Amino acid sequence: FDEFDALAKERADAADHGELKRVVNAFLQLLDAYNGRSLLIAATNHEGILDAAVWRRFDEVLVFEPPNLEQLRKLLACKLRGLRRNFDVDSNEIANLFKGMSQADVERVVRRAAKEMVLSGKEFLDERHIKSAIRREDARQARMKRG
To answer: Model's pTM, two decimal places?
Structure first.
């Protein structure tokens, strides 16, 4: 299950009108009744909003930390390959702009920056495109947190 928080959100959410409680309760019943040999894997970026009863049904939790500076430089080198740019992809200055982001966030920002470059008629991707795309990603993340 990807984006598991959409299915297993805390049932005590004051904004819910009962539908979420029914979905989570039904899911918990299905989990309890299942006796197959499959492995259930759930992924979320918002573990803090998962229902406690759902958490109890998982035996293991794997945490994937955001990439460190070196990993960010490598990821950016890969994602920016083939794009004409006027900055050094290996610089800490550029990688630091992405600090704390997941790999998916970095990919989304790079795609957004490349689109902005093309739509603005520029020949080279520059730091301004990256910063603009990061601001838009930050705004997207803030909207998601508000619900």
So the answer is: 0.68
